[in-house]
Specification:
- By secondary structure, this protein is an alpha/beta fold.
- It has a single domain, classed as 3-Layer(aba) Sandwich (Rossmann fold).
- It is built from 7 helices and 7 strands, in the order ααβαβαβαβαβαββ.
- It has a 7-stranded mixed sheet, with helices on both faces.
- Helix 4 links the parallel strand 2 and strand 3.
- Helix 2 runs parallel beside helix 3 and helix 5 runs parallel beside helix 6.
- The longest helix has 19 residues.
- It is globular.
- The structure holds S-adenosylmethionine (SAM).
Length: 202
Amino acid sequence: MDPTLRDLLDELFRSGREHDAGEPEHARRFLNLEPETARLVSLLIALGRRRQILEIGTSNGYSTIWLASAAQRTGGRVVSIDLSLPKLAAADANLRRAGLRDLVELHAGDATEIVTALVGPFDLVFFDADRVTAPRQLDLLRPRLTPDALLLADNALSHPSEIAAYLDAVDRLPGFRHLVVPIGKGLSVAHRPAPAAQLRPG
Ligand SMILES: C[S@@+](CC[C@H](N)C(=O)[O-])C[C@H]1O[C@@H](n2cnc3c(N)ncnc32)[C@H](O)[C@@H]1O
């Protein structure tokens, strides 16, 4: 990764932690992804050449910058959703600082309503919002996934009861292999390989 971008991400993560420590209201905290989880997500994008990425839970754009930076190398783009307008304004500014704003489409509103209107298709969905509504969003997104699809969700270990219904839903998805990686707060990773005839050319 470009050292300037790495410095920006380090600075955002540090300042996000400071912000959250001084913010009594949970809904106003940034709650950024752990850097090691972000590195794994970035690696998965590169290895799977993911190009059509959807993020649910933008916050101030920390993880979105990781996604967009990885997408830049695969020739991809990112759609990201958050219901907090102040956080989306911060994400907009942070993505501009990162030089990645053109690769990201930001949507304001409730993710369950917004995904209904998204056309897709998506070859990677990263769930990092409220966890409880994720199963419904997954249901709505199923017809908008590419044959070769990767589903990721953070907090698989840190919020076991809130995320249980999502993990259960992913376990039951036909054609998907699912595991929880004990990194950061726990990353749920589910992959459906495309049938051989539908694999993308190099
Ligand atoms: C854990 S934070 C996301 C952190 C971000 N992915 C990062 O690593 O920088 C969760 C975000 O989801 C948003 N959120 C929660 N419920 C939502 C919903 N139903 N629709 C859209 N956004 C939601 C919150 O406003 C919050 O910014």
